[in-house]
């Protein structure tokens, strides 16, 4: 299978949904992907089983605040500079590119990066969604060493970091990202296909395209999306307050939705750090990380990213279960509510919403 220009709109819609508000605006990634396909040709989409065990897989993602990435987009040479550094360190070029996170632009832009480098895109990622911090990937949960990070920024700087563990990879990469203007391209957990087996979440590019196609021509786009995701609708209403700020390389804040129609009189607050992390109603948690929480336009079911939240928007909030990897003890330690400073033990979304 190959990804061609006709696949990009569906991939973008699906990645925006899986981005849970983060991962960057899909519009820039979509434009880059279409341009790269036109210039370099279709991008082969491969499974891990298609690659020899020693094939070098390079996970790539943009790191930084989505509000900044919305205006300061990646240049065409950033993936080339990262690939050159990979070849310098490993003595051979990348065999495939993988999205570090399938959510948002970080799920779409790898099509452009793979096309630019002339290598396949792996049908997998490290999250099954989007998360804000470097160590919040399946490779870290699987116990692989986080001993290399390569970063390149828009002006041409290349930084190679040799952190002692995943937490230090976040601290150091975030500092470099802030110095670069809160936006850079990053490769971390460069690994062979053999080591990737069991350490990445497979099939997520295909899944994102399927999610994006679910609403095409649908009479009830919101219903079609809910069915495809197996999601629960937390509320439908109007955005009445958005408190959003960019600090320390993240977007942080809260969004408040006042219910309309059947939900009139209800109020849901969504707290965010690049991604939507926790949804609270009347002091009770309705959904929490690592489960997915996405704000969508009520009429079109298109995802609304955190940097695009505006007063008065008519939206619905959907929530659905995460990949089982994130519900393991190590997964919850890495990306559960306490990892973000919330004093909550994780409760699956299906239990929290069983009454609704």
From TrEMBL:
Question: Boundaries of each S-Me-THD-like C-terminal domain copy?
Answer: 166-349
Family annotation (SUPFAM superfamilies)? CV3147-like
What's the protein here called?
Answer: DUF917 domain-containing protein
| Pfam families per UniProt | S-Me-THD_C, S-Me-THD_N
Residues of the S-Me-THD N-terminal domain: 7-161
Origin species, per record, is Nonomuraea longispora
InterPro entries, A to Z: S-Me-THD-like_C (IPR048350), S-Me-THD_C_sf (IPR024071), S-Me-THD_N (IPR010318), S-Me-THD_N_sf (IPR027479)
């Amino acid at each position: 299978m190959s990804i061609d220009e006709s696949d990009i709109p569906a991939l973008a819609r699906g990645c925006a949904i899986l981005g849970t508000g983060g991962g960057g605006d899909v519009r820039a990634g979509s434009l880059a992907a279409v341009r790269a396909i036109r210039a370099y040709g279709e991008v082969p989409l491969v499974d891990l089983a298609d690659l020899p065990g020693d094939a070098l897989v390079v996970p790539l993602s943009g790191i930084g605040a989505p509000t900044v990435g919305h205006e300061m987009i990646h240049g065409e040479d950033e993936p080339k500079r990262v690939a050159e550094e990979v070849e310098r360190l490993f003595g051979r070029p990348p065999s495939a590119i993988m999205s570090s996170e399938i959510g948002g632009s970080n799920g779409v832009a790898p099509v452009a990066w793979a096309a630019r480098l002339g290598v396949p895109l792996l049908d997998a990622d490290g999250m099954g969604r989007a998360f804000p911090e470097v160590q919040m990937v399946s490779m870290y949960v699987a116990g692989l060493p986080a001993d290399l990070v390569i970063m390149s920024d828009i002006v041409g700087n290349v930084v190679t970091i040799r952190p002692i563990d995943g937490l230090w990879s976040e601290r150091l990469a975030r500092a470099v990202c802030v110095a670069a203007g809160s936006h850079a391209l990053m490769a971390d957990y460069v690994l062979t296909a053999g080591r990737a087996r069991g350490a990445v979440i497979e099939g997520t590019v295909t899944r994102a395209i399927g999610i994006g196609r679910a609403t095409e021509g649908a009479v009830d786009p919101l219903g079609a999306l809910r069915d495809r995701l197996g999601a629960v609708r937390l509320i439908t209403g109007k955005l009445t307050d958005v408190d959003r700020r960019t600090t320390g390389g993240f977007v942080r804040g809260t969004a408040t939705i006042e219910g309309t129609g059947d939900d009139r009189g209800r109020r849901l607050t969504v707290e965010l750090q690049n991604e939507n992390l926790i949804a609270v109603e009347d002091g009770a948690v309705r959904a929490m990380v690592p489960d997915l929480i996405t704000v969508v336009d009520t009429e079109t079911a298109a995802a609304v990213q955190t940097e695009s939240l505006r007063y008065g928007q008519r939206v619905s909030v959907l929530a659905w279960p995460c990949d089982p990897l994130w519900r393991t003890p190590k997964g919850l330690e890495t990306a559960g509510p306490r990892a973000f400073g919330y004093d909550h033990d994780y409760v699956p979304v299906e239990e929290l919403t069983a009454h609704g």
